[in-house]
Amino acid sequence: MNAAQKSGKGAPAYSLYVNRWLGRRFAVLAYLAGLRPNHVTAISAAFSFAAIAVLVLVPVGWLTGVVVSACLVLGYALDAADGQLARLRRQSSVSGEWLDHMVDCVKISSLHLAVAVSLYRFTDLPDAVLLLPLGYAVVGAVSFFGQILNEQLRRNVGGEARVLGPDSRRPSLVRALAKIPLDYGVLCLVFLLLGSPVAFLVGYGVMFAAASGYLLLACVAWYRTMRGLDRRLVP
């Protein structure tokens, strides 16, 4: 099963040490059940979008936070499992990669929009706080697009497929722990605070600030990488 793992370079702690661990086990269960990678992607999407629906439709509270967090955690683990299952079965495909990315794209944007709807409908917080999830939706969408665009441009010029950001060295515990505020898995756990909207906003705001700062640094690194690709194309 270890052979089915992607590189852990640049991954934060939860994604690297918890989500990969959960994903491996879900991949094995899916393999034994005879599921295909696209089936696992669909199940992952179902959990993630169930969490988003609960955010939009159910008043905030501790139980709501537990349900949302649990669904997001399961969706994220299954998102790791589909790729591992594809490599385990040797069934990696362009259509499967497309489906996985499309689900991720919708999830990243709609999750933060659902937070905005939830805060607007079910709390008495000032309307200005809605700018936080709206900004997070922009940062998440741009970050995701940047990663995918970098991969494609590198492929087009014959370079490595993945461009990670300002820190693309080998994985280490210290760097993985330092990047916890950037971790989608930790964001899933922040929803456990939904019973206290103020506490939730503090945790959510820290994640947003970290994601915004990292995106700025990543854009500088990505642009430098693209300039390097320009030099490869000069005859």
From TrEMBL:
InterPro entries: CDP-OH_P_trans, CDP-OH_PTrfase_TM_dom, CDP_ALCOHOL_P_TRANSF_CS. The keyword Protein transport does not apply. Belongs to the CDP-alcohol phosphatidyltransferase class-I family. This is CDP-alcohol phosphatidyltransferase family protein. The keyword Membrane applies. The chain crosses the membrane at residues 45-78, 128-146, 176-195, 201-223. Pfam families: CDP-OH_P_transf (PF01066). Keywords: Membrane, Transferase, Transmembrane, Transmembrane helix.
